[in-house]
Amino acid sequence: MIVGDVTVAFRRGILEHILNSRPKCALFTKAATLDADTQRYSPENEVQGEGYQAGGMELEGGTILPGPDGGLALVFHSPVWKVATVNAYGAVVYLADDAGRTVRIICFEKNVISTNGPFTVKLAGAADGGVVTA
Q: I want to staple 119 with a disulfide (CB 3.0 to 4.6 A). Which of 53, 54, 84, 104 is the partner?
């Protein structure tokens, strides 16, 4: 009997493509229109402030781990702008080397303000599906 399921090798390949495409995290104001239909990174309504550079920050520590329901999860260290003055409502994880294709939209559900201090975007761990689950 043949079961119609996507192979683990294919899933791993998708996650490896993401790892190899320079994933970045950028911060956005409440004025940004970000949802599941957001296809590419755009600097429109990106935050501006001391300690933050347009385009955001490259993610580090990318690892493929067992995820929920027998899948795979791609996890990263949470990005931290160590000394930043910003006011952000959400973040976008996107692939800098894949035409800015978006991977995940993160809504903080409120304005989060940092004044000359650290600003951290907490990314999901493997048990919660990571940045991407395949």
A: 84
Taking CA atoms, 94 is separated from 32, 46, 69, in Å, by: 15, 13, 25
Is the pTM for the entire model greater than 0.90? Answer: yes
- Sheet harboring 101-120: ordered strands across? 57-58, 23-28, 80-95, 101-120
Nearest CA to 83 among 46, 111, 55, 115?
Answer: 115
Q: For the segment 17-74, what is each residue's pLDDT rounded down to a tens digit?
A: 999 999 999 999 999 999 999 999 999 999 999 999 999 999 999 999 998 888 899 9
Burial class (CB in 10 A: 0-12, 13-18, 19+), 53: exposed
Q: How many Cα neighbours within 13 Å face the side chain of 24?
A: 19
